[in-house]
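Supplementary notes for students who missed Thursday's class. We covered one full example, reproduced here. Read the sequence, then the structure, then the short commentary at the end.
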Amino acid sequence: MEKYTYKESGIEWLGKVPSNWKVDRLKDKTLAVIGGDWGDDPESDKEGLDIPVLRVADLNDIYFSFENLTIRKIKEGSFSNRKITERSLIIEKSGGGEKQLVGRVGYPRKIAFDAICSNFMANIVLDKNVDINFVNYLFSALYSLKLNYPHVQQTTGIQNLNVTSYLTTKVAFPPVSEQKAIADYLDKATDRIDRIIAIKEEQLKCAEKTYFSQLEEATTIGINGEKKVKTNIPYIVQVADNWVIDRIKDVAEFNPIKSKARVEINEEVEVVPMEYVSDYGQISSGSIKQFKEIESGLNYFENGDVIFAKITPCMENGKGAFVENISTRVAFGSSEFFVLRPSFRILGKYLYYFTRSNLFRKYLEANMKGAAGQQRVPSKFFQYCEISFPESVQEQREIIQYLDQVYLKHIVLKKNIEDQINTLKNYKKSLIHEYVTGKKQVAEIAKQKLNYAE
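Structure (token representation):
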């Protein structure tokens, strides 16, 4: 293959493209766009075929996973019109959210069974003049550049992609043989990157496991090698034999009432929404308002208190904090927080560290009440949960100092690994973009070693 010579594409996002590549619209390579169907419950009495339905949740990067298939009852006529074929790419047409744009595309590679896609997706059937794997990489590049964004219509709580409009996007196509060569190269290159990412993600899991193991040990058996005894408490497997076990309600005041704060009507207070509290106990600065301006129903707290998110998924994710940097005398937060005001028997930060334990939160998760998506830890149940601690405040202080250091080391390690993962993901995106737009040529690097995989 000769080295590329270039021409102007006339398209801003593409710039120059190889001279033998043809600029065309995606729709000109598309035979049909077919909406999906969700069908009925397979246990229902309605007529139909039990068919796997690919969902947005099955989309793993740019390919579909078939590990947890959803079976639905689909009418025979609907299935025959919507069946996924070897020429199908599946596009997300409804969904997304604040942190993720709708419009991801996936290739149901090596699908070995009859299936359709859900009604939140559409089946794009491509003609035989393009390599489907190449076009899948091409869609990945378009999504990374957010070229689907102008075709998104935002509605309350959900984004809708105008697929027909999106397919008018102009791209450049090399000859089919070259499309296959590019796709084959990207398969190998991205597979190597994905394997390194998987290793890094496993390292991240190990770091998390180590951190919580140290936290849970320090808040049950201490850090000074105390003699241990077993308990019958699910989240306190064993405890230092000279420690106290007591109920949360007996060591902390629960949800202090506002009247105790004696807030003046024009007094400035800080307002801290749920999203301002991290999973690792950090509180971002909230908005400052006069007391008369705040909504009723918010929970009041002060520096020295502990806040604990009681609602799913915030509780399971670890949201909560020891309050120590509020800029006003009094603060108010979400009604979905429990507020704990420590007594003289226990230090607030020790109480926070105990409530951050994964074992403790898993126990609470198993006892949440309410409808799916709105489950909460019952107030009384939480107050009657038991906590282990040394009677010596000095020993509590030593444990806090130890866990502060453990936390700082963990956060540094966690950030380092996450930065490496993000660098690899960004490199993968740039690699795909460079090859599907002709900025790099497969033949030029075919015999070179991939440095990042060394």
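Commentary. The first strand starts at residue 6 and ends at 8. The chain has eleven helices and 28 strands. If anything here is unclear, bring it to office hours.
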